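Collaborator request, handled under Task 6.
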Amino acid sequence: MATYLSDTTRLHDEQWLKRYYFSRAAFSAVWVALAFAIGQHAAGIAGALLIIYPVWDALANYVDMSRSGGMRENLSQAFNVFASAAIAVAVVIVLNVNTALILDVFGVWAVLSGLLQLVTAVRRWKRFGAQWAMILSGAQSALAGGFFILQAQVSASAPSAIGKVAGYAAVGAIYFLVSALWLLASHLRRKAVSTR
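Structure tokens returned to the collaborator:
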């Protein structure tokens, strides 16, 4: 009975994680499309998109953390919620004070959130597997953050910075999509084995 409950809980959690990854990929894809289509040509829209991106990340991590056992079991995500919310506030300040700092702010966030995502993925690997794309995504995010900081002085406005951030977000969307598809494939393989 305990094994059945454990398997049922695992399946439920895995289905949530798959939906979560698909939703993260879909949001990022829409955000990237808006960033390239409109954000690069209008400073106001670029600024709004640059604020929305970390706000969404904070919200998504909060919902996932809440659905996955709460703050105590997901400290890396709790820190990620705080970091993303703080970055959203920092972006608002920078947009009003010195737009040359936008990529610096996103660079710090990419490093921090990437490392926290990597920790989350390593922890989840033990339970779900299929986390290699999230581990790569976290490492890539940290590296991208370093490049943002190096390029910060070149992109001194929201429209010029958003193209770089959109490229980063597009790669993240791919990682989320791959993770969702990998979980789906793993589920289908197990289902096929169990019906034999």
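The cover message to the collaborator said: "The chain has one domain: 19-189. Residues 19-189 form one domain. Please let us know whether this matches your experimental observations."
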